[in-house]
Amino acid sequence: MRIGQGYDVHAFGDGDHIMLGGVRVPHDRGVVAHSDGDVVIHALCDALLGALALGDIGQHFPPSDERWRDADSRQFLRHCQVLIAERGYKLGNADVTVVCERPKVGPHAQAMREALAADLGVELDAISVKATTSEQLGFTGRREGIAAMAMCLLVSA
Ligand SMILES: Nc1ccn([C@@H]2O[C@H](COP(=O)(O)O)[C@@H](O)[C@H]2O)c(=O)n1
Ligand SMILES: C[C@@]1(CO)OP(=O)(O)OP(=O)(O)OC[C@H]1O
């Protein structure tokens, strides 16, 4: 078994939606990012790469590379799934926490779980997505940005 953890932050910017866990979530802001800025997927990718001791998302998909401009982050996740399978592992389970005041994540959590489970080739009960505010404290509390944390366990395939 191998354990991994990941963390990601993106600042809010102009826009009318954000991508979270592969789901388009309506919001009064967008995020500032090179890719689509999906903090859930970025944190989860870092957890998966960490479990494999294969560096981090920025090493696999450099922000300096124009191929990843506005990229759909689900392709990053599917790449991680290939790396996991190549090494004889599968995802046991993953647990993600989103930190923001708004948007409300709960109404979208099921759709996110379905998207993440599909990309990682696991059953729905292997993926947890939950959320919390930071009680109006710090950059998330001031609604300047959004953060996500992820943990995962890889098991032998
Ligand atoms: N962006 C968010 C934040 C929170 N939730 C849900 O609300 C519950 C209460 O949050 P507190 O930070 O006040 O404890 C939390 O447990 C989530 O169920 C959410 O959906 N989206
Ligand atoms: C995802 C990548 C892709 O270039 O860029 P960003 O969308 O800016 O996101 P970040 O969380 O900073 O991770 C780094 C990059 O891999």
Task: List the topology elements.
Elements: E1 2-13, E2 17-20, E3 23-26, E4 30-31, H1 39-51, H2 57-60, H3 74-86, E5 89-99, H4 106-120, E6 127-132, H5 138-141, E7 145-156
Parallel strand pairs: 5-6
Antiparallel strand pairs: 1-4, 1-7, 2-3, 5-7
Helix pairs in contact: 1-3
Verbal overview:
The chain has a five-stranded mixed sheet. The chain has a two-stranded antiparallel sheet with strand order 2-3. The protein is of the alpha+beta class. The protein is built from five helices and seven strands. Helices cover 31% and strands 32% of the residues. The site of 2C-methyl-D-erythritol 2,4-cyclodiphosphate has 12 residues, from helix 2. It is an enzyme of class 4 (lyase).
CATH architecture: 2-Layer Sandwich
CATH fold-level topology: 60s Ribosomal Protein L30, Chain: A
The total of beta strands comes to: 7
How many angstroms does the end-to-end distance come to? 10 Å
Outline the low-pLDDT stretches: none
Q: Strand-residue fraction?
A: 25-35%
Strand order of the largest sheet: 4-1-7-5-6
| Distinct compounds present | the ligand Nc1ccn([C@@H]2O[C@H](COP(=O)(O)O)[C@@H](O)[C@H]2O)c(=O)n1, 2C-methyl-D-erythritol 2,4-cyclodiphosphate
How many strands, what sense, and barrel or not for the largest sheet? Answer: 5 strands, mixed
Radius of gyration: 15 Å
State the CATH class: Alpha Beta
Name the helix and strand elements from N-terminus to C-terminus, one letter apiece.
EEEEHHHEHEHE
**CATH homologous superfamily designation:** 2-C-methyl-D-erythritol 2,4-cyclodiphosphate synthase
Total of DSSP H or I helical runs spanning 4+ residues = 5
Compute the number of structural domains. Answer: 1
The coarse silhouette is globular
How would you classify the helix and strand content by structural class? alpha+beta
Mean pLDDT: 98
Could you estimate the helical fraction of the residues in percent? 25-40%
